[in-house]
Amino acid sequence: MSENKIQVFLSRPNPFTQHQSFFIKEFTKLLKQSGFECVTLQAAEYSPYEVVTSLREMIQRSYGIIVLAFGQTFINEGVRKKDAEINPDFFASKEIHLKNKWITSVYCHIEGILALTFGLPMLTIPQENITKEGILKQGEYSITAPEFELNTKDEILHYLHSDEFQKSLQEWKTMVEQKYKFVKDGEHTY
Question: C-alpha dihedral over 71, 57, 178, 24, to 10 degrees?
């Protein structure tokens, strides 16, 4: 990593389409132009222990996290909590019908939760029709960008340069820069 770049962790499923790969390339280029360097755990055959150990070290050395939630599993039609019983002792025990929904990689949730344990500013970028569960539920712990589509390269570029996306990105960047400055200023006082 370059000395003058702020390291951030990019959590994302492994791309399996050209448009996903293009989105990652253009987005990381945009971040580099703003003084950020992305790190991510590359796909490989790791044991669960090796994955968690590597992730923990990479995330701990970062000043922010981006959860780029590409869809990985598509549900034409399905049911969440099938045959759920309404009971006050059960949390959210309601059957939910799903249609044309994406589910992102479980690693986006794992990496996001790890980042929260280190107090990292989080930006979530959800693909259109992604299920909003786990780390993708909107809350005060994360800045959530508008949903994006992966239909064409032009749409991807338009999204990345849109006012709505740039507003979310700028809010997150400011938080990351503040964290970086706080940590670096603290290093100089000892």
Answer: -30
Taking the model in full, what pTM does it have? 0.88
- 88-138: per-residue pLDDT in tens? 888 888 888 999 999 999 999 999 999 999 999 999 999 999 999 888 987
Q: Domain range spanning residue 133?
A: 6-71+103-188
Domain at 51, CATH number: 3.40.50.450
- Domain membership of residue 153 (yes or no) is yes
- Domain count along the chain: 1
Q: Which residue has the tokens 């959860």?
A: 67
Angle at 60 between CA 54 and CA 64, to 5 degrees: 115
The type of residue at 24 is: I
133, 77 contact by CB (below 8 A):
no
